[in-house]
Specification:
Shape: globular
Number of strands: 14
Order of helices and strands: EEEEEEEEEEEEEE
Helix content: under 10%
Structural class: mainly beta
Number of helices: 0
Length: about 190
């Protein structure tokens, strides 16, 4: 995952509670002393929610194929699952003076590599400013002119990823020029 030639791992942490389940997938980097777990999960499966179909090791990262359940699937039973199919490639990169490893989505578009909330209908805000691959000022990137249509808040305004955003940051979906959503990004709240 980090290009050091030593195999790393992706593993689910699972919770069962009666008929419900939740599975968060975390990256574990091999280090000299012991494996190091990244804080941000890169994928999630849950009852009546998103489902991870396949995880594959690829050069420079992992490929995650998932089916997302969105508000557009409200008429489907939990057994039918969601309808938003997505395949993402995730790698890790170091950021900041402390050289913290964070997940980064490298394909189909560059963005945040952790779990993103579903796309919700609503206003698409035009956007062409710098964005962030992770909730840290050192993860700054730039869009090229005309690359995207705009951004929309990822999830409800009071929701972040997995129960809360880091203070001072908000997660956004990126709406591509063809109206698809293939990545999300972080923006500081001013």
């Amino acid at each position: 995952m980090n290009g050091d030639g030593v195999d790393d791992a992706l593993a689910p942490v699972e919770m069962l509670d009666g008929n419900s389940f939740s599975s968060l997938w975390f990256i574990w980097l091999a280090t000299v002393d012991q494996p190091e777990q990244l804080v941000h999960p890169v994928a999630a499966s849950r009852s009546c929610g998103d489902f991870i179909n396949e995880v594959t090791a690829v050069p420079g990262g992992i490929e995650i194929t998932e089916t997302r359940r969105t508000i557009f699937d409200a008429d489907h039973s939990c057994a039918e699952g969601g309808t938003w199919e997505e395949t993402r490639t995730i790698a890790v990169e170091q950021f900041g003076e402390d050289k913290i490893w964070l997940p980064v989505q490298t394909s189909p578009e560059r963005g945040y590599g952790g779990v993103c909330n579903e796309e919700l209908p609503g206003d698409v805000m035009p956007f062409d400013e710098p964005y962030y691959l992770a909730p840290t000022m050192q993860a700054k990137e730039e869009f090229t002119s005309g690359e995207i249509r705009g951004i929309s808040i990822a999830g409800l305004e009071d929701q972040g990823t997995e129960g809360g955003e880091p203070g001072g940051w908000r997660l956004y979906n990126v709406v591509e020029t063809d109206d698809s959503v293939e990545r999300c990004i972080w923006l500081p709240i001013h």
